Amino acid sequence: MKRSLFLFIALIVLSVYSRGQSPQGGLNCFTMVAGKDATADGSVIIAHNEDDHGKNLVNWYRVPQKNHEQGETITLATGAEVSQVETTYGYIWLEMPGMKFADSYMNEHGVVIASNACASREDNPELTDGGIGYWLRRLMAERAASAREAVEVAGELIEQYGYASSGRTYSVADDQEAWVMSVVNGKHWVARRVPDDKVMVIPNYYTIRQVNLSNGEVFMGSDDLIDYARKRGWYDPHKEGAFNFRKAYGHPGSLASDGNIPRKWRGLELISGRDFEMEQSFPFAIVPEKSLEVKDFMRVLADHYEGTEWDESQRYRNGEPHAHGVNSICAPHNQYGFVTQLRDDMPVDIGTVMWLAPRRPCIQPFVPWYLGMRDMPASLAQSDPQTALENHFEAPENMYEAAPEHTFTQYARFANYVDKHYGGLFKTIHDFKSKTQQQMFREQSKVEKQAVELYQKDKEEALEWLTEFTLKYLDRTKRFMQEFPVPQ
Predict the structure, then answer these.
(1) pTM of the model
(2) Domain spans of the chain, in order of start
(3) Which tens digits make up the pLDDT trace of 51-102?
(4) Most exposed residue of 196, 236, 441, 450, measured as fewest CB within 10 angstroms of its CB?
(5) Are the CB atoms for 94 and 29 separated by under 8 Å?
(6) CATH topology (fold) of 21-481
(7) Cα→Cα distances 114→24, 48, 103, 147, 303, Å
(8) For the CA atoms of the chain, what is the radius of gyration?
(9) CB-based burial, 357-369: b 16+ in 10 Å, e otherwise
């Protein structure tokens, strides 16, 4: 009881302090990143909830590899010109029309990219030709054959143009290693490799503390990162000792936000099996309680503080869990959740898989989308990749009305319907989700084994086999939703 009262009072104090101070509000996205020795099957994992306010749409696109003419350039949203490379890699693109920082990527080399808004304290950024923002992660996907190379690509672009947003942490992984890259408004950034035996949790504040740029195997960043912080008065080595990037560059309101601290606390407790104090200084990464499976990450992404003092819905007896109290991991503004399983013991087309739950991870099964899938169903996209890119910032105001037949619109309307009847529907929804998920896990190894055997003889047939596996369960979720009287 004392601990609950203390945490409640502490959170109220943090809330009063932080609201109105952080430029990004601390309500966008949640990510976990795991090294290959922290998982049961040796996979590197990024688990991510994409959180964005408003009525949004998610398009699924497959963008092919492309050769470019000499002298070709890219015009960024800010107006800057970037020289194009000779060949850009192909990738699966989760696009949210109109959003500046919401897209996720999985490229042909198995490099996965997601991000979390992290407000910085920079108030005088250096930008060249308006800087770079939306295009940064796209260029990482198009130009990087590894996670490390993606960080290097982004670092060069930031130092050339400057980052045109308050701040952000990019999570980047391949089947060998994972990195988190924290960028600051302007031309400063730092990246740290996630230890192979650990897992890290990222809400919407910087998580990198220690920085040792002389150790290139673990750290990368701006050469003047520490000198600039000292110059701005954000770091005093005589008073503070070792440099702490998070403390020096993080916006105080973001670091103290009640939208950040409880989610970080909850994620750490769920994956570690240990107790953490809300007010303590959380570690950069932790060794999990046990080797983690894909389903463990799915469980965290669907969490609303069930069984804790923060569950104000009291396991849905007081209504749906997204409308209460402190911002939860599975939140009302969640647009999709995914767990990427990156493995090196099979061809990259098969070993790279994104388990995706559209709109709400708490009500939808995570369906596997393989990198090698050849076709995306027409109902998952409004147009084609080129048209989507050209019109990305010209999205209509109400996406549901603009795309009534889009599959994502069906998921969104179903989520809204479930929220209104959460307590009564929870058992039915949970039973379907659990049963479907277990069936997919049971079938996965068999399907992948057959796909690997086929791949050696007929690559296209193998990839078609994987596509059929995914579409079978996509269709199953759509048919389940149709059993409910969801308003159109």
Answers:
(1) 0.95
(2) 21-481
(3) 998 899 999 999 999 999 999 999 999 999 999 999 999 999 999 999 999 9
(4) 236
(5) no
(6) Penicillin V Acylase; Chain A (3.60.60)
(7) 17, 7, 7, 12, 20
(8) 22
(9) bbbbbbbbbbbbb
